Amino acid sequence: MSVTGAAIVAGVCGQPIRHSMSPLIHNAWIAAAGLDAAYAPFAPPESGFEAFIEGLRGGAIRGLNVTIPFKERALACADRCSDLARLAGAANLLVFEADGTITADNTDGPGLIDAIAVQVPGFDPAAGPVVILGAGGAARGAAAALAMGGAPKITLVNRTLARAEAIAASIGGVVKAAAEAELDALLGEAGLVINATSLGLGGGAGPAARLDLTPETAVVVDMVYKPLRTEFLRRAEAAGRRTVDGLEMLLRQAVPSFEAFFGVAPPASVDVRALALAQLGEAVR
Ligand code: NAP
User: What pTM did the predictor assign?
Assistant: First the structure.
């Protein structure tokens, strides 16, 4: 179906935005669903993010996904937000309501949990202790979602300990920070280990965590998806652990956004994972 003057418009906003896979994913779903809709990339200047968002109030477009470096500022622009976005301290989804208000949500954490359900069916990510490597926005979103999901213990281990401590202090409860010296002991009891650092991006070495120390039942997730099979995931597989890749998380976080924008579930008739793999230059798997 072609885009008409009545089309529902949504998009993704980041700086830079050129390499975002969200337009590919959403426009493939739009086409497969036969919707009169379009999903576009936006890259406002860093200093102009708030002015850009203010200009969209009242429904110039239906909604926006938000990515680096604007997720925290997106939450601050909103008039209301989900409990999860508040706990995560960041929003990756803004919906522009007809009354001029903005509603914020965070689908990154649910995307992580849904990706685990897809790639390791039957595994409960909140059943045991979680170790999160990193303390940036992605780590914080994961910690918030897993804490809300009932995980008994979530420990953030980061090069810069103070950043992990700040997240632990902000979320509180089961979320703690630990020094890198404690990592081996934490891995020894972990049910779930997540790389939420940018280490491994572009094909370099991932975090130097001893994944072989984890219980045999542990699941290892890498949020990095370029390349798809990171060095971190390959080490996890070599140790016999089940793994979840970052691309599945990216695809899953897009699902509730699509539903919020267009009011329907993404159609199953298009294989967006295969399309994304092709864009990444990866073999389909
Ligand atoms: P961020 O806020 O910039 O945080 C980067 C993290 O990586 C920090 O914890 C940083 O540690 C750590 N780090 C960077 N270089 C390091 C090094 N040389 N040694 C040790 N630690 C290092 O980024 P983010 O938004 O949280 O994203 C993190 C990663 O997750 C990125 O690769 C991003 O693409 C990915 N991600 C994927 C998805 C998905 O859907 N699959 C979603 C969100 C994010 P310091 O605090 O010490 O600097």
Answer: 0.95
